[in-house]
Amino acid sequence: MPFAPSELILNPDGSVYHLHLRPEQVAPTIITVGDPDRVAKVSRYFDAVECRVQKREFITHTGRIGRLRLSVISSGIGPDNIDIVVNEVDAVFNIDLQTRQPKKEPTTLTFVRLGTAGGLQPEVPADSFVASVGGLGFDGLLLAYQAEPMWKHPLATALRQHFEPAGGLLAAPYYASGDTALLANWFSKGFHHGYTATHGGFYAPQGRQLRAPRRLANYLDYLQTFEYEGQRILNLEMETAALFGLCQLLGHRAASVSAIIANRALGRFSDDPEAAVQRLIEYTLERLSASAP
After folding, report:
1. What three-state secondary structure class fits 7?
2. Phi, psi (deg, nearest 5) at residue 80
3. Which of 13, 48, 106, 242 could pair with 82 in a Cys bridge, judged by C-beta atoms 3.0 to 4.6 Å apart?
């Protein structure tokens, strides 16, 4: 049964609604970045750029580095935008946009989130790199999907129990793991490895307070002291758990790497965050291009 026009929304040129992409304009290896300005900072390393597409905050550059064809797409900030990017890129590959029917043989995609984050532990300083073992989602996005194993994962249960003395969590968490092969093959050396906490906001949801009072004054303390199977929460941001969860549901592979530009435990911010991001871009592209067949 085809998807209705109200559910799979297409533009007049046949492209998916928000990203404005058609199948020939996107590669099966996708780097996602939050900042639209970061797309060109990635694609400048391409040997050739095939196409550039922009609609709203979603910018896509597709090209090649050596034998690897890849795309870099800006998602904007937050899990809601990750919901759009992952679902629409999946639709480009796995739904026939002319007949609106799912394809019989789906394509497995590879997503790599390349972003910035705040470090939660003192030993993860500003300008260091974190590769996420898994994402703890406090944003609620995956609660809208049939993802019960993620809501009921033992790690999420342990985190809820850990927060009981504080009066409980602000939102029910879910847990989604990253792709272990990508982590081992591409992002092993030079990275801190641990869990990433994904939030639906930047200020009170991540334990910050300016003029509006927050609910849990000791929120970061409880996140810092949580441990499960020898791993701790190393960083906080707004996309990783949503990316991991949606990719698990759709059968895709995902990794998330972050340049730590602030250390929340020490109250320090990077002296040159752009330099840290640039180093992460260069390293990531080198690893991806080296893996091309």
Report:
1. coil
2. -65, -40
3. 242
b/e 250-275 (16+ beta carbons within 10 angstroms → b): bebbbbbbbbbbbbbbeeeebeebee
Residue of 282, 144, 154 whose CA lies nearest to 228: 154
Rounded CA-CA distance 73/51 in Å is: 12
Query: What's the confidence (pLDDT) of residue 166?
Result: 87
126-176 pLDDT, tens digit each: 999 999 999 999 998 999 999 999 999 999 999 999 999 988 887 889 999
User: Which of 142, 136, 110, 148 is CA-nearest to residue 246?
Assistant: 142
Domain edges within the chain: 23-290
CATH number belonging to the domain at 23-290, selected among 3.10.129.10, 3.40.50.1370, 3.40.50.1580, 3.40.440.10: 3.40.50.1580
Please list the helix, strand and coil fractions of the chain in percent, rounded to the nearest 5, in that order.
Answer: 30, 30, 40
Could you give the CA distance from residue 125 to residue 127 in angstroms, rounded to a whole number? Answer: 6
Residues contacting 191, CB < 8 A, separation 6+: 129, 130, 131, 257
Chain segment 82-105, per-residue pLDDT in tens? 999 999 999 999 999 999 999 999
- Cα distance between residue 224 and residue 28, in whole Å: 36
Q: What is the pTM of this model?
A: 0.96
